[in-house]
């Protein structure tokens, strides 16, 4: 009496099923299922609610969003530090130059300076303000998320 031992696995997104089967090599003896089981990864209440509403369930989506936010912040700081380094090395700004928006120097006035620079000459300080604004805002104002 010879048997072939088989371990079957069913790997799903939220569960793992398994079965241990002894399959007979001759037709005279019956094949048997020795053991079977399943391991289910339960959903949280928020995931169940999202699933019932038809939204896709992703366990790592929240982690991915937070990691993306950390990466974007790191890239922003790196871009700003690189720009400030280049401006300082070329004596366009000094270590005492104010680089933050304050008082009347708001984002709106920076956009106005940027528009003015397209048609006429602007001061060195206004040029630095415009460069920092482009560097901060990545050069455009996205309307992708605006509701029409």
Description:
A 3-stranded antiparallel sheet has the order 1-2-3, with no helix packed on it. It is 43% helix and 19% strand. The chain has helices spanning 45-52, 61-89, 107-119, 124-137, and strands at 3-11, 15-24, 32-40. The model has no long low-confidence stretch (mean pLDDT 83). It has 4 helices and 3 strands.
Task: Provide a quick synopsis of the model.
The chain has 4 helices and 3 strands, in the order βββαααα. Helices cover 43% and strands 19% of the residues.
Topology:
Elements: E1 3-11, E2 15-24, E3 32-40, H1 45-52, H2 61-89, H3 107-119, H4 124-137
Antiparallel strand pairs: 1-2, 2-3
Helix pairs in contact: 2-4, 3-4
